[in-house]
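A quick aside before the break. I want you to see a complete sequence-to-structure record at least once, exactly as it would be stored in a machine-readable document. Don't worry about memorizing anything.
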Amino acid sequence: MRETRPKHHEYTGLVDREGTSIFEGAILERWYNQLYGDVRSVVVWDAEKGAWVDRGHFASGSGWVSLNGQNFKYNLIVGHIDETPEELYPAVKKAE
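That is the input. The structure line, written in tokens, reads:
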């Protein structure tokens, strides 16, 4: 029987903007917009979508999902959820 979910820390087959291999659980940082600046998200396997996604959240409670790693090449790995969970924090609006 074929396993339907990748093993924890599975290699995604994708790389960040510096060419570093991205594994499940990687914490990524990228430019979001003028209001929020850089934001962080974590790479997970979404079985429903059948794809690697990165999930992040805003201090307000809402969040975002980027499908299938199409933009991972614009991100930078800044940590791993199991090793440096403090590196994943909600996006907060910049001071005006």
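Two observations worth writing down. The mean pLDDT is 86. The two ends are 55 Å apart (CA to CA). We'll return to this after the break.
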